[in-house]
Structures are given as structure tokens and as C-alpha cells.
User: Fold these one by one.
Assistant:
Number 1:
Amino acid sequence: MAELAIEQLTKSFDGTEVLKELSLNIRDDEFVAVLGPSGSGKSTLFHLIGGLYEPDAGSILLGGENINGQKGSVSYMPQSPSLLPWRTVLDNVLLGAEIAGHKDQQAAIQMMEKAGLAGYEQSYPHQLSGGMKQRAAFIRSLLSPQPLILLDEPFSALDEFTRSEMQKWLLDIWQHNKRSILFVTHNIEEALFLADRILVLSKKPARVLAEFKVGFARPRAEDITLTEEFLQYKKDIYKVLKKGTGE
Amino acid sequence: MVLILLLIIWQVLVPLFEVPEWLLPNPYQIGLEAVNSWPNYSGHLFATIHLSILGFLIGSSVGLGGAMMLHLVPKLRETFYPLLILSQNIPIIVLAPLLVIWFGFGLLPKLIIIILVCFFPITIAALDGFRQTSGELLHYMKMAGADRHEIFWKLEWPHAMPSIFSGLKIAATYSVMGAVISEWLGAQEGIGVYMTLASSSFQTTQVFVAILLIMSLSMLFFAAIVLLEKRIIRWKTSGGGNLNG
């Protein structure tokens, strides 16, 4: 069970409210994108789900179990690949699983092969390109046993071309290894292309402004980004974002 | 190259100004003495090697253990860090006679001196290495659910390896110096003893042989650490920039 249910989550830092009664939920194997202006408390949301802080009020339920302030309940992929430079790529993709206590080297080698990283098992991170490092970081989170993966703007540091390649790659590998995913981004197109559902956050204190169900069938091809429907979604989301930040 | 040139200049100038050997021998005389009197000083040399290695091993263990404790227990760090620096402000030459008064002429006071000069560079280097761990990596480890123990052994410890080796290199060369100073205090054998005997009888050439031995030993120890470092730290590239590449 991977259902994530966040209810009435509130958190302040030094008297500034960052999250205010924020509620959202993610179903089993669902891909949800969270869109919001920068500084809208997206990372605070992740830190709370990741258990680094306790919320001031509200609860975070994963599979019906309260995980407030519990570290290691979810799998995480940060903005930078954050691979350990002294570990080989193979040992790096196993790190998440190692910390969670479920290491499976064979599965890791197979997954690396599927991800186009075959032959790099014994290389060190500095020998990989930016895109390959991100792939390794994503595999690391897939190989961790937790049912929910948090992705924190994972492609924001990549160039446009690599980014679109990585989005297609991510969808493909997720299609074959379904997990629940919470994906934070500030790129509308990225959210539309990847997600089943998009939640638009407001400025601080963050709450959910609007929710969009993205109806494109899977597997998705790149050309959906050129359709009339895609453009219409984009306009609608843009309007909500504009209004939300203009308040 | 520069070294050879200096030796040549030295070799040429000494006879030119007719400097007597008891004042300043030339490199050839020193070399000759080093070869000929090997049976006289080999025992001293091995005694010093033994003492330095023993002192270095204990000193580095104390240094590393101390750094780990100070790092993992912040309270200890606040209390002991100033003391640590203070311990280095006491001149060894003043401390040495005191140690003899307290512990006699045996091995213990000598080891204490070497440990005192060895542990400091390692403790400081290791502490810095532990503390300068990248924030990004630390954040990832925390989000992945790593506990304090895992963060230390999987992240901070390997991250500090290059700094620890810098500390070890400094300590390795210091250990020879520490050994020689401790032998001056009163020992049966050792390069320090050989040197004292030579200088008190105006055997200047032998003093230079002793200096040569000390330098060679330091360099040998240094090279050994560099070799060990190359074997252990393989992930570092010569090009650097290994974190983001």
C-alpha cells in the first residue's frame, strides 16, 4: 500500500507560516506533480514527508500509517544527483537500499542495464555525464524498497535537450517499475508530460490552489506536447498560477 | 636538480675558502663518512626507526580516535578544542625534561613526546574533513533515513579520507623529529644519541651524517604514506573537481 494522505499540514519557521492546512493525497502507483512558484514551500513539504522535521499540526499517512517525523519512510531523489564520489556507480545505486536494509546487487545490475548504464558498474560518478548521473540517482531511489518516491526538481539543472530525453526515459522506466511518485517542479510542460495529476500550490503559506487531472493515455509520446489539448491545459494552469501568485 | 646544483656549489666552495672539516665538511666527506661508519651508526638508526614508527602508530591512533570523539560528541568538542591548541603551544624542549622527571629515562617519556607532536595534525585534519562534508550529500543521507552511525561511516569518514592522509603525511615527518628530540633527553641509542656524541666531540662530519639520516627517514616515511594513500583513495582523479565533475 503506497497511498499517501496528507491532512491539514501546517508548519512555520521563525514565525513565518510556510505551509497552511495543506492537504493532498496520492493513490497507489500514481504519478502526481506539484507545481508552484519558487519559495512556495515545496521543499518544506518534502522535508516534512521525509521526516526531517515534525509538522506543527496535521498528519502524514503512508499506507494508513502515521509517518510524522519518521525518517526513511519514503525514497528520495534530490535536485542534484548527490552520488557519493568515493563509491562506484553500482555501490551508489545500492546506497538507498543499503540504508533501508534491503540490498540486492543482482537487481541493481539488471536495473542499470535497463537504464543504459551497463558497463559503468565499476566506474566512479565523476566519469559519468550529467544525464547519466541523474539516471543513476533515479535508479537509486527505485532500488530502495519504499513504495513512494519523492522527486525534487530532478531535471532542473540539465540542459533542455537532455531534460526532454530524461523525461521520456523516466516515463519508460516508471511504466515498467510502477511506484507512487510525487514530483516537484516549476515547469508546467514537464508536469503535464509526466503526471497523472497536477497540484498547483499557492505562494507562502502554501496550500493547494487547484488540481488538474491530465487525461493523456499512456505510454505517452513526445508529440502530445504539440496538441491543442496540451496547450489548453497549459493555459489553464498558467492562469491559476498567475492568479495564485498575484494575490 | 636544484639539490644537485646546491651540492656542487657546496663541494666547490668549501675547499676554495679553505674551511676546515670540523667547521663545515664538504658533501664528499659526508658521503664517505656515511658509507664507512655504517657499522657505528646502524644500531642507532634502527633504534630511531623503531621508536618513530611506534610513536607514529600510537600518535595517529590517538589523533584519529580523538577527532572521532570530538566530532561525534559536540559537547566534548567545545570543551577540548581549546585545550588541544594549548597543548601545541608548550615548547617540546621545555616539556621534555619534565617528562623525564616524571617518567624516567625509559620508553614512555619518549613515546609521549612523539605522540604529542603526531596527534595534533591528524586530529585537526580529520576534524576538518568530517565537518566539511557536502551539505547536499548530508541532506540526501538524512532524507534516505540514515542514522548518525550510518552518516558517519558512509559519508563523513570516507569524505575525510583525503584530509586524514594530509594529516598523516605531516605526522609521519614529525614523528622522526620527535624521536630524535626525545633521544636527546637521555637514551642508550638512537640517531639523537649519535648526534649528541658527535657534536660534543666536534665530529662535525658525523653530525651531518645524522642530519642526512633524519632527512632520509622523514622522506621515506612520507613516501610510504603517499603510497598507502594511492592504494586507498582510488576515486580521486588527478583532474580534481570530483564532486560535480
Note: Residues 238-245 of chain B have pLDDT under 50 and may be disordered.
Number 2:
Amino acid sequence: MDYFGQLLANGLVLGAIYALTAVAFTLVYGVVRLVNFAFGELFMLGAFLTTSLMLPEVRLFGTVVPMPGFPLPIAALGAIVITGVIGVVVDRIAYRPLRNAPRLAPLITSIAVSVVLQSLAQTIWGAEELRFPQFYLATLEPVVLFDSIYLSVMDLVVMATAVVAMLGLSLFIARSSLGRAMRASAEDQTAAMLVGIPVNRVVAAAFAIGSGFAALAGLLYAQTYGFAHSSMGFLPGLKALTAAVLGGIGSVPGAALGGLILGLVEALGAGYLPNGTAWKDAISFVLLVGLLYMRPQGLLGRPELNSAGRGSLLGGASAAGAGWLQAIFARGDALLARGAAAGTPAAFGLLAVAVIVGLMVPSDYWLRILTMVVIYGMLASGLNVIVGFAGLLDLGFVAFWAVGSYLTSILFVLVLKDGYGVAPQEVWWLLYLNLPLAGLLAAGFAVLLGTPTLKLRGDYLAIMTLGFGEIVRVVAINWMDLTNGPMGIRGIPAPNLFGIALGSPRAQFFFALALAVVVVFAVARLVRSYVGRAWVAIREDEEAAEAMGVPTARYKLYAYATSGFVGGFVGVFYAHSQQYISPLNFSLFENILLLMLVVLGGLGTFLGPFVGALIWIVFLQLALDLPFVQAYPETRFALLGVVLIVLMVFRPQGLAASARVGLTMPGARAKEAA
Amino acid sequence: MAEIVPIIHPTAHAERPVEPLLKVSGLSVAYGRIRAIDGVDLTVEPGRIVSLVGSNGAGKTTTLMALSGLLPLAAGKIVFAGEDITGLAPELRVGRGIAHVPERRRVFAGMSVRENLVLGAYSRGDAMEIAGDIERLTSLFPILGKRMNQAAGTLSGGEQQMLAIARGLMSRPQLLIMDEPTMGLAPQMIDLILDTVLEIRKLGTTVLLVEQNAIEAIRLSDHVYVMRLGRVVHEDSGAGIDPERVKAFYMGVDA
């Protein structure tokens, strides 16, 4: 009972923090139907700003800056206001121009905003933790309930703050004029404008309030756990999003309930399950996956809120941007359209160039980098199947990659070599068996996960896949017997063909190139088949596709499974090429990076993923020569984020949209009404 | 900036030349490369009912959406009550006195009838008078009075149309723009709604009407514009217009 009571108290504190962040997600989703992934980072900013304002001095950009040293309440208020303003600015720059753009565009910018904010926070405050200063309430004696449950005064403050903030918000939405305008804008933006509601300002207000809530949650979290760190917002943000979906996204009481449930389940799970603390991060995602099976609209959500998804997910040009910019794009489009028309010859041309480069480049170092380009290009191609061709955001693709890498590594190293003493070169052929086998295994996972989610519209797949990616990562870290845990698996043999080791960087490059040919060819064949036409139809307009008799759920599942297959397939080679894998290789950040590469190179094109990978990985290397980058390596990711936001705002259809495989025949394009 | 705005609103047949309430010249809207409306000129005098008629795709709804600022103009000028409102944001036009009752009603389905009406007065600063206005409107639409706390989405189509009109009137507009107010309604309900249009003029509000039922619209109106393929092809007073000619325009014959 004592133990249970203590866990319950811990769960309530955690639940209060999740609930506050979930409110941010749910409020903005309710008004503009956008999952703003950046709330995790606004949470982090709230923590950093509060901590900084409370300290007498802080190191910013590596130099000591005097700070006011406010008491917690004043610092908190300041942090909430500043974060609210940042939220409004983010909306103005990254989301408002995309209000009428395809749905995928603002989702991608919100991820890019996350990356930018996180990288900037690391640049400003450094990579180390910033300790949360003592506050006098925290030094008081804890309150003891039933002689055994200890609750610090600050724990009570956290819970009380959450309750007051959420009740206040509910009242505000129900009673105030602005709250009413928010509800009206959520229902019908056009009608809201017609009654005289300044919708843009109402949306900005929703962002300000949401960001303030995220900041509040972040500073309470920092206070409870004693630190602020640039990556601290990631996992709580994800959990809060899960809580919001759990409670029914768009519903404020739902967010409160979802947060509370998640906090309690996590605290109790950590306390009672065997080895629970290690697994607690997976619990919430298992809960999410289970819930989406049974009650997709969430506990208190209305089903219609989540069925939005009309219109092309990718198409449409942006009117933003100066004339000269549009002119440059127009010229590029013409060039790309010609390239796309050339199609096969262009692909062979590029392959020839790659072969020549592979033969000519003298340095092993650069050959390794080029091999990485090809690997990332292949992985991005796999992601491109689901994102670029079927128009669905997948944030758990990295899990398929992990499945492939772990399958082959476990078989070769942990089972055959360590278990039975079989030397890898005796079973060299197993690699070639593992390639399709891992692909099938990953595709199997995709079917398992995709079956419940893909029947739904909207952003469920993105959220579900996010959960899946995390589950796989947590399993990889914690199931020591299977995966060797965080130590990873060493000594994975290099690829081998009939006893000839292909370990040299040049051989590996050509091996990768051969696989890339297989991947691109297979994807191209599929996309040009009736399956691919169904994908493109779904991407362009899901409702129209359905009305034309395309069984959309089934074809979305095919796309997800195909993407999973490619992930598993490439994952096998990745493991053999790196010869060492650990859970760190398969973080969500890798997934975001792959997504960015696809967007950079061109969503829905065959070669775009490779172009994106080439640009990025080569830039990553070359930029290392700059002294500024040497001091702040993370700024390269901030730059990538900025490039993507600019790309999405000025050209939401991606750089290479005119080379994209469309529904129309080449000749029909001229007649197409813009 | 305010020019001479005639304060004497109603009623029809003004003998002396009246300053028009709305003057639209050369209005053009493009969807991509296609011009949906091209060089439309309209004049609406205060206290009148003016109709736009024409077959599907003639550009009637596009014209109305451009007037309330929902669509950007490719060219043209909109002068309302003596002021140029061409570039004004839609929510600000409501404050100037233009209310738009959109096609398919678009009431806030999840909110109560009362909340819908209160939202209709969003642009007004006089919170005190809102309750009185709601009362006045319920005498125009008694059924709404009985449904005050019901969610708007649970009303019948005709009731929702009344709510949409009442919501528009809550902003105390000088000009009420109505887009297809009888669409999808039962015959009795159509008569009721069209009677209301006359009522609204009597209260002193000018009406710009798009109505699918051209014959009824002509009967109601003081002035009629006939549109075809994005242009105004004919105009006349309600009494003077020849229904046979209108029919010919519908059929695509240039009479």
C-alpha cells in the first residue's frame, strides 16, 4: 500500500506535466488541424528560460552572461510569455503560409522547426545539462500522507498549477469571446471569417496559449527532475502527444485525462513490472497502439475531428515568393520535366557517373562517405514510397531499418558465431537470404501496425509510427539477451561472395550501388504499375480515389509494407557494411533526417532521395572544415531545418515536383489547369 | 474619408439619383490560369434587392466570395458606402457593413443557436445591445427562439438557413449578401425564406441575392443581373426583365 501510494503520487506529478503539454497539442490541433511536433522543443525552451532567469549568471554561446536571478514564479511567468511569443513567431513563419497548402507540408515544417529549435538551444546553452536552481518552497519539509507517502511541497504545487491552468483554459474556451471565436474557427474557418473573426489572430492566440502551456509543463518538469537540457523535450513531447491522442485529440478534458492516465500507467508500470523502469518508455506507446486498435478517436474525442484529410496531400504550388524566385523554379521545372521525360536514360546516365566515380576516387575515406550516400539514398527511397508516393507521413521508418540490421547481426554474430561457433565466411550465402528475409519480416511488422491505423484518415499513421519507432528502440536497448542492449553488436562480417570478402571500401561501394539499382528498379516498377497509380491517386485526393473504387486502406497498407520491405532489406546491408550496430543508430532523429533528405531531393521522385543524400552527406563533411561548424557542429542541422522550412513555404511540393510521377500522361500536363 | 453616405435607407423607387451602396467595376477573379469572372460591373443602390442569376458556372458565387474578400482579385475595384474596400481583409469588411450568408449555410454545427448568433455580432463593439438584437431576430424567426440552446447542427436544413441569415443580420449590416438561400429546401420552406428576404429589405437592409430559382428571384428583385461564363451579359429592373430572355441565357443562346 505504501509503495502503491508513493507510485500513485509520482504518477500524478508526471501525469500533470504530460497533461499540460497534451493541452498544447490538442488546442492547436483543434483549431488548425496541425500536429505541431515542435511543442516538445517549446517545452524545453520553457525549462531553459526559467532556469536561466532564476540564475545569477548563465553561459550563453560559451560566454558568461549576467542574469536577473528572479524567484521561480516571476521567472516562470517570463519564460511562459517569451515561449508564447516564440510560438506565435513560429506559426507566422512556418505554418501560416501553409494554411491552405497540402497537409503534409506543415507537418514537415513542424518537424523542421523542432530540429532548428533543438539545435539552436544546444548552440546557445551548450550540450551539458543546466541545473535547476533551488527554490525556497523546494526546501520545505515534504508532506507525509498516511504516514508513508512523501509528497514534496513542489509536487503539490505542480499538481495544483496543472489543475488551475487547465480549469482556467476550459473556462476561457467556454465563456470568453476569444474562446468562442477559437471554437468557431475550429469548426469552419471560412464561416468564421464571414462573421468577422480575424482567424489568423485567433490561430496565433491558440499558438501563444499552447506554447505557454508547453513552457509551463517544461519548467515544472525541470523543477521536478532538477535540470534543463536541449534534448529534454523530445520524449515528454512524444508522450504528451500520445496522451492527447489517447484522450481524443482536440478535446481539452481529453488531454487532461490522457495525461493523467499516461502518468499513472508509467509510474505504476515502472514500479510493478519486472525491470519496469527500463521499459517504462515503451509502455505508453504500447498503450497508444492498443487504443488505436480499439477506439481510434480517443477516449473523449469526437470521431469527425480526426477524419479531416481532404485534398491532395502534396500537390499544389505556393503563391509565396518573389517573381525572381518563381522564375528560377520555373526554369528548374522545365529542366526536370525534360529529365523526367528522359527517365530511364537519365537513370542509366547517373549510374554510369556513379560507377566512374567509384572507380576513380582514390581515397578510402571518400569511398566510405559515398557508400553512406548510397545507403541513405536507398533508405530514403524506402521512406519515399510511403511519404512521396502514397502521401502518408511515416516517423517510424527507422524501425524497419533496425529490424533488418538486427536480424542479420543476431543471426550471424549472436546465434551462429557465438552460439554454434560457425565462422561467418562458411555461411556467406546467408547474407543473400537475409536480404529478402529481413524485408519480409519488416513488411510483416508494417502490416501488423498498418492494418488498424491505415483505415483511419489524417495524421494517425504519423503518430502510430512514431510510437512504433520508439518501441523498437526501447526493445533494442533493453532486451539484452536478444540485442546485446546498449553495447550493440560487434564483429558483423563484411559482405562476402563465394568466399571472396568484399570488405574494401571500393567493393562495398559497388555492392551498395548494386543494391541501389535493385531498389530503384523495384520501386520504379511498382510505382508504374496499377498499384503505384492507386498510390498516387490516394496521395492526390483520398476521397476521390475512394469514390473511384480504389480500396484506399489496402493500397496504403501495400505502400507501408513496401516501404518496410525496403527498410529491412537495406538494413541488412547497413549492418554488414558498418560491422557494428547499436540502438543509437536507429533514433528518431535518423528518421527525421531521412525524411528531410527525401524532401530536399524531391518527394515522389525515383532519384530525389539519392540527390538529397548526396547533397546532405557531402555538405556534412565539407562543412566540418569551417571553424564555426567545428565549434558548433549542431548548427548544420539547424541549417538543414531552415532550408526545409524555406523549401516548404516557398515550394511545398518539393524541389523536384515536376519530375514527380503523376497521374496524368505527359501530354495531358499542358492542359492541366493550375 | 467617409463620403456622403445616404442615411435615408429605404424604401425602393427613389426618384432622385442615389449614391450607390456598392459599386463594383471590372471585377476579375482567376483560379490559376482560368478567369472565373472577368470584368464584372455591378451597382447596388441602397434599400434594394438585387439578384445575380445565371446557370451553373456563370460565376455568381465567385463574385460574392470576391465581394466579401474570400478570394483575391485579379483585377477590379470594389467601392462600398463610398470607400474603396478592394484590398480589405474579409473579417474587416463585416465591420464595414457587409454580411455574407454563404452557400450551404455553414452554421457552426457544434455550437448552440445562441452562440452562433453571438458570433454573428463579433465585429460589433456594443456587447450590451446583442441580447436585444437576438430578441428582435427571434421575432423575425420564431423557430430560432425555441431552439436557442440547441446545437446548430441538430436543426433542420430550413432552420439552419434561418440561423445563417439571422447570424448575418447580427452584425447589423448595410448589405446582406445571400448565396443560394433556398438550396435543398422543401417548397414551403423556400417560400418562407424568400418572404424573409422581403422582410429584411423592409427593415432597411440592402440585399444582394444569388438564387438558383431565377423566376422567383426576378419576382422579388428591384434589379437583376444575368451572368454567363464569368461576365454580366444582361441587366434590367426586376419588372422590366423578360424571363424568356433569361431562359435563353441559361440555355446558352445569345438572345
Note: The domain at 22-250 of chain B is CATH 3.40.50.300 (Rossmann fold).
Number 3:
Amino acid sequence: MSDLIIDEEFLGQIELLQTLLKNCAAGAFGGSHKSKTFGSSCEFADYRDYIPGDDITKIDWNAFARFEKLYLKLYLDERQVHTRIYIDASRSIGYGKGGKNRQAIRLAAAFAYLAVCEMDRVSVYAVHDDKLEDLIVDMLGKESYINNIGKLNDIVFDGDSRISDAILPSKVGYGDGLSVIISDFLTDNDYVAAIDHLAAKKRDILCVQLLSEEELNPKFRGKMHFYDCEQSEKYYRKNINKEIINAYRLALEYATGKVRDCCYARGGEYILVSAEDSMSSVFLDKLMEGGVIK
Amino acid sequence: MSLLYVFGLLGLLGIPVLIFIYIIKNKYTEQTISSTYLWSLSEKFIKRRIPINRLVGIISLILQILMVILISVLLAHPVITVPNAARAYCFVLDGSGSMNISLGEKTRFEAGKDEIRSMVRDASNGSEFTLIFAADTTDIVYERLTDKERALNILDSLDPAYVTPDIIETLDTVEGFFKDNNGTRIYLITDKNYEEVENIELINVTEGFPVAENYALTDVGYEVVDGSSLHVRGKAVSYTTAASLTVELYVNDDDKKPEDFVKYDTATVQTSSAASGLEEAHFELTCNVPAFKAVKVVITETDALAMDNEIRLYNTEAEKFSDTLIVSDTPFFVKANMEAAGNVDCTVVSTEEYEKGGYSGYGLYVFDGYDPVDNMPRDGAVWFFGPRSTVSGSNFSYQGDGTPKHMAEYSDVNSSTVVKSLLTGVSMTAFDLGKYSKCGVGGNVNTLISCDENPILFTCTNAYGNRETVFAFRLNDSSDFTMSSDCAVLFSNLLGYTFPTIVTQTEYYSGDTMLVHVPSGCSSIEVVTPSGQRNYIDTTSDIAEYKLGEVGVFDITMKMKSNEARSLRVFSSLAEEERFTEVVDFEFTVRGTYEETFFDGIYDDLMFIFIALAVIAVADFGVYCYEQYQLR
């Protein structure tokens, strides 16, 4: 990748985003954690800023004496959450000027940061064909995040992606956190089995369907011959007119609905994200309005 | 079917070009996209497939190919031949003066033209049209013309005359045509009723219209009583029914403004049946004017033919330049005869006095027994009596004295118009002559009297453009001639010739021929007709003729060699026989046998192809709009 997607500026943005989420949200990210992420065990984990309403017994007065600022001492819960993020690294995500790859990496980084802030363990995987590439494994804490998150810049988006074939054989844990799948889901390949598998493993599931603006609102008109970037034998040849565009919109609605319904049916969450959406709109609007963040 | 311009089919080459453009234009734009999944999925959501959507492109191509084909066919100009669909038409259009009578919104002539237009338009293409126009003369305007538009355009350019056509000439022309084209249906378009017609289909343009009222002025003349009282008399005529008519008198006395007439008198008259069979009423209008140039008499009531409701009379008392110089040592006979013959102001000088010089500015120089050999005057007419020398600039040469062997005899009056005019009223009795001078004469000499085949009285134009009269004898050498009545008449005629009245008459009927006496030194005579046409009269002869073909005032302007110009006017009224609103003629029969003949009709009307082309173009535009709507 010629330019870095995860850079200091971006990290500053998600830091700010995290603060905003803190101010807006009453609970922690994910909402479906069965146990508190920072519990009452003796193992110190991190500090965080005091927010009115926090348990004042957990304020570190030594730190206050030194910095004249209220910090809360956080301790690791005994039931530690493990957030796993799966990025569809197929060619369809990386192709063209839609910026889906950039948005996928940013979303993964943002989700990872939010998880790290909640002292979750985070792993990030890239789905290549039927394999999972371990990009970041068991990342814990901000320092580790800073050190590792840049690896997302190295994802190569190429080939196909068979999400189910990749996730099913992998270790996904059991009831220990959130699984985020970031993909365009524009495939005939099976992804439902993966969702079923994750649901069976009592994982919280969030499917992020990432589409480019060109896919959401195609501007093509007239006689077009489309080639599929992943499979050259696939093509679509038509005079794109009003009728076809109307049919396309119905197809889009169908395809997104299919993913959404699949998620909801399995107790998961779903959001549709445009490659051009800003992080704040994704997290503050879509995720909060969708009830993913409570 | 045949094609007029076969090369027009080369336009069909546009079809492969069009197809090629269509292929180029309809090439699919190739593009690789991240996924064709949604596009392929969309196939399942196409609600209903409208066949036209798939055919829009091909429909457009088909329509455009059709347009190319139609344009090629248009260029090739197809001509379809239909057997026995066409025929030949001959229209004989009456262009007489009565066709100017109004039928309400249009004249009879226009109604006649409408009849012809209607028949030409309704005729099958390929029909032949012949138009014979009977007006001043009867002419075949076009013969066996197949081009309808051209036939109609030529018809449009025709105007009625103001005269009565020569029916004999018209019949001859029609018969001549029919003799060679007896399969032609002949239509006579006229306002006259013919009791008998043969081989003619009569179309009376007045049918269906009420009989029009027409009033007219006739026999109008004037008289000046006691030098200043002008009496104008005439008749007001109603050609249909009795009528009460108002007649007005106008007088003009300003040469510079010939159209400025002042109203002087009005009379209201009631017409009544007269011996002529018409409704007539006499009128007399008077006024006191010291002098006048013209009078105008008008009927104020409105009728179907306005042009015969006005008459203008012009004062013919033209200015005459009649100062005469008599150069003679024995002037008695000459002076007495000239003064007796006319209003001539004579000055007599002796030859001795004349030779001293200084005599000029006279209208006429009379040399009696004296020859101005090298100093003949150039500014006036010249008379010679008994020349005995050749005078430089004259139109004769002296060839010695002659002794008569026979009596002097007059020439044949029919030898020329001038001779006939100069010998008018002369008894032409031969007379004895004592002696005479033998004169050799040049061209354009009008010999009135000769003796022993030598001209002894002749007129001509000299080298200076002036009129010249030569008596090859002296009056005192022929007492017989001097004492005869012919002498006085001849002197009068010769003075008239020397000081010509340019026109002897100022009121005519259309179709009349006006005689114009060409004055000495006249370089051109221009006649402006009432319709504004400018014509020029031949000035090479002493008396010129001009046919008055219109109704109204004719302006005549004479330009002299001295750049002086003289103007006068004459008025031409509509011929009396053309004023009748209803005319019944006896017969118009064309001898011969009509054999109805049909021939192949031609249909080369491209209008349907134009319409089809327009419809297809609109349809193509509609398809294009639909396509663009679909691509929104």
C-alpha cells in the first residue's frame, strides 16, 4: 500500500472518537458482554479518566496527587473478553477507486481500539480464500495497540474470500467476546455457516457490510460490459437504463437484507457502511442508532 | 414507374454507412468492477420486460434506414405512369374590358382565372394545358404545357385588357389549335352568354352572381362661351336599371399640378329609357373660369365598374410658335395666302434687308424668290418659293428651270400618311403653271404636286432637323393655282404641318390609335400609361401612331434637341361596348369534331414521401426521447 491508512492522524481521530463514545454511551462497547471487562481482581490493567458516575472508590488518589487529575484504576476481570476482527481481504474489497479497503482497515482499527480501551484482548485476521491470515493476535492494551495496529497497512487485498471455509476451522473461542466480520458480502460463497458457527460458540457477532458509493448508487448508464475483478469469466452485459437501475436497487436491497436478516436471526448485529462514511458517522450514528453501542 | 434522377439512388449508400455508425455507436463500454454480483442479481428483479426496451436501438436504426431510403427515393424523383388518366385542356380566357367588372370581392377576370386554376389543380398530372388569351390580340399564351405550377404562374401574370377582342381573330386562333388537337377539351371562360356554342364548354363567370349596377359617362364635350364661361355637356348612362346619378365637374388650371382639380358644379340627373335601349340622362355643368388646362367629370355613385365613371378632357389649344418672317421683294401673294390660311404673325423684309443679317427667332422663314445659299436659318421651319440655287443644308438641289409640258398634278393620297394628311380637303384639280424650277430631292420627301414628273411642291426635313416646304414655283407664276380653293386649303394644311398640333384629340376610347405629329427638332416622345408603363414613340416620321391600350390619363412628354421639354395629356375611356354588364352574343362555334382522348397520367407528387419522411423523423425522435428517458 503506497500510503499508510493507520497513521498518527487516524489514531488521533479514533482517540477522539473513543472519548465521544464514552460521553455518549452509558456502557461499554459491545453491550453484550456478560461480565465486566474491568473487574475487581487484584491484577492492575490500566488507568482511565474519571467520568462522573464512576465508583469513586476506584480513584487512584496517588495519581491525583501527582497529576492533579482524577484517574480510575482498572483491574483485569477474571473473564477476559477476546474481540476477533475478520477482514475480507478479497480483491473485490481492494479493487477500484471505491476505497473499500481503506475503509475496511480503518473500521478494523477503530473496532480494535475500542476493544483495547475496554481492556479486551484483540485479534485481527485477514480472510484470503479459505485461509485466515493472523495479522494481530491477542493484542492487549494501548501500547500493544500502538505497536501492532500498523500491521493492518500490510494487508494485500487479492483473490477470493470464502469466509465460512476460513473461519470454521479456526479457533474462535467460546462465549468470550465479539466477532466482527468486515466484508462486502457480495459473493455466492457461503458466509452463513461462519455466522452460525460463531453463534454456536456463543460469540457476539457484528457483520459490517462495506460497499462503495458506486455500488450503493451506480451512475453507469448506456451499454456497459462489466467484468468481475475477482473472476474474469464473470461478466454482465446490458444497456443500463432506468429499468435495470431499478432492478439493481432491488437486488441491493435484497443482498443487504439477506446479510442483515442472517445476523439478526442469530442474535447478531449488522450495519451497512459506505466506503465514504466517516468513522464518526459509522460509530456515533449507525452503531448507536442501530443499538450496537448502548 | 420510372425515376427522373436515377443517380438519386446513390443515396442508398448511406444505409451501410448508417449501419456502420450504428455498430460503432452501439459498442458496449467495457469496465471492470469490484463485483458483478449485484448486477447479475438484478436480473431477477426486472419486473417486466418491455419488448421495446430491447428493440429501441434496432427500431431507431430501422427508422433511420427508412429515412435514408425515402430521401434517396425523393432525390431519384419517382414518376408513376397511370394509363388513360390524363387529358388535354384548352382554356380560352376572355380578357375584354368587361371582365374588369366587379362581382363583389373580385372581378370577373379574377373569377375566370379561379375557374382555370381549379381545373388545372384538379386535372391529373401529365395533363396538357393550353391557354388562349383574347385581349388586344388573341394569343396562345402557352400550348400543351404539362407543368401545372408554370401554367398557374403564367396565368397569374395575365391582366384583362380594356378593349373588345376581335372575335373573328379569337375564333380563328381557337379553330387553328383545335384543328391540330381535336382531342382537346376547350373551355371558354367569359362573362358573355353565347346562344350557340360548338366544341366548346362555356363557363360564364357571372353565373350565380346578381346583375351588377354599372353607370358611365358618354359623349362628354365642352364649349367656351364668351371667352370665360365653360359649358360641359354629356350623358350619364345606367346599363342595368334606372338610377338617380350625381355628376360633378372639376377644373384644373395649373400645368405644374395636373392632378389638382377644383370642384365647380354638381348636377343630379335621373336616367330614363332612351332610343339606345339604355337608361340615359343628359347633363350640363357650367362654370366661369378665365382659362383651364383640363376638366374632369365624375359620377359619384359606386358601381361595379369604377373606371367608366370619370372622364377627363384636356384643352388642345397648344401654344404655337407662329411668328413668320417673309423674305421677298414681291411678298403680296405669299403674305396674303398665309394670313388667309391661319393665325400667322407675318413680318416682311426685303432680300436686301435680310442679307444685312440679324434675323432669327422666327418659327418660320419664307424665302420668296430669294435663296439663302449659305446662310439658311437653323432655328425654324423654312419655306421656299421658286428657288433658283441650291441652298446649303436644304434637302433639294437646283437643277435648272423647267417649262411645263403638262398640267401640274397632285400625288396619290395613299402614297404616305403625311401626304394623305397634307392633301386633306384638297380637291386635287390639276392646274397650269407658267414655269418652275427643277429640283433634285433627297430621301424622305413627301411630294404633293409634280409637273412633268418633277416635284414642284414637296415637304421634307432639312439638315438642321427643321421642316422644309418647297414650292418649286412662285405664286405669281401660276394664277390658276393661286386663285383656286386648293391653294388656301393647302396653305392651311402646310401651316399645320409646319406648326403641328401634336395631338388633334385628347379624348379616346381604349384600343384607339392616337396620332402624334412629331414636331421639328423633337428628339424623343415618351408616353407614360395609366399603369405607369413607359413607352417611346418612333420620332423618325412626321406622324407617329400609338395605340392606347389602357383606361385613364396618358402623360406624353416630348424632348426637343434644344433640351426643351413639352408635356401634354390625353384621356382614354373604356370602350363603350365593354361597359355593358350583360352581353349576349350569338355564337362561338369551333368547327371540327371533338374526339375525346385520354393519355397516360403522370403522378410525381412527392408530398406523400415528404409526409412519410416527416412521420418517420418524428417517430425516430420519439424513440430517441424514450431512450434518453430510460437512461436517466
Note: The two ends of chain B are 47 Å apart (CA to CA).
